[in-house]
Amino acid sequence: MNWKKTFLTIFIILVPIATYTAAKTSKFQMFPKFDATDVKISIKANENTKLEDAFKIVQSIEADMMNKKDDFFIRSIDSVAGYRRDTGGNTERYPYVMYMTVELQKLKAANFLDKYVTPYLSFYYDNEGRTRTEKSIKIASKIKKFLEKKNYKDKFQLAEITVLEKKVGPVKADIKIGLVSNDNEKIISGIRLIQKELEKIEGIKSSSNSLKFGIDEIKLKVNSYGEQLGIDESFIGTYLSNMYLSKKKGVTFDATDMLDIKIESINKDDFETFKNLEIPLKDGTFIALNQVVDFKVIKGFEQLIKDNAEKNFYIFANVNPDIVTASEALEKLQPTLDKVKKSGIKLIFKGEAEKQKNLRNDMMLASALAIILIMLSMLYLFNSFRETFILMSVIPFSILGVLIGHKIMGLNLSMPSLIGALGLAGVVINDGIIMMTYLKKAKTLDDVFMRATKRFRPIVLTTITTLIGMSSLIFFPTGQAVIFQPIAIGLGFGLLWGTILNLIYLPVLYSISHKLKGNN
Q: CA separation (Å) from 98 to 49, 53, 69, 265, 502?
């Protein structure tokens, strides 16, 4: 108070710099990770794999994992062939896909509340089977290394084998990149290039794509020799369909039912016979098919996805936010994405990138609305623009407490963190109101000291009781309650720092703005 202007100048310079630095060095993820009760394994084999063979593959992997059940804290494994969910959360039902659900043992009590409080306060607490000492994210990492060590990908000629973890919120894949082009060859090449570079980034836990290849297709094009002989694609198509497609020729009856009579070639599954099939010419002679047409074998798609009337193909990936966030991964991938764009492929970014953009717009709107409503309330209460703005200046400075709290607790910023920061604006103002209502009657600096001192106890008590109430969620969250931990951290640490602002910064700013001086 004796060096008000110096203190305020230093404060107004240092706090924004500290806030900017903390925000710049913080990572952002949509939702915090939490401990799940199971881990999924998604498998995709070669397109020609039969359902029976797929079931044998998944049974073999299951048997190997059950031999390690104590290492992975496995309670049970449910396996299915012919169905799976991929990295992007999409459902597939093909004979060559498989899905495994690895149920984990219940987590052992890890902190004071779990050991001595929850068992007595919860009506549904079950102490049996609590043998797991590792979080699901660590177990998922161990299972991934086990699958790589066993080399199932080469052993069973798998296209994909991925370990999936349960996620919260609308984002099913942290990274979702859409590729749009009418050139299928470019799409396939672009997807493989991006996915290859994506998997090189440290912290990428799993990746997949939406390419759903079916059986190979044979494209026939009449060559110049065939054109000289008067053959065109229309004639070739009609002749081959009559030769190879099953044709209904009539209907007959047996003792109980009506039966269709169909005819099909005995050689319809022999490719060599197909290539040497004799094609009739107009002069009554015959010529082999492979002499008048060019053969081109291409990959066919079993499923196509359309968004906004455009044919889209997607790459999905999930990240370990402790190592790299989705935004950071996309930044590292940018040179590859630019290269793909130059080839004529349009890129669409969904997943966390799309949700962050929507969230940014929503939070800006919500913040603006909250500030306006708080300001109107303060104007009604104090009937003064000056005192309203003095009080509201505490709000932006209090954000530093939210950022410091996340760094102390070792958490990334997330959507619940932003909700906590938004709620903090209303909470931190409460202490400010307690202080400001007393300072309004101060006429001198001595009055400010006296009145601020009287508000010290209620302000500190308000902060302490709030922190005690949220301490269990800040320091001892378990299971899915971890999702709400950032809200408690934002409110708790923000209020703690806001209390310092209300006790020191607010009286100094009030004294300067009202030009208060000592009695002498």
A: 11, 11, 20, 35, 59
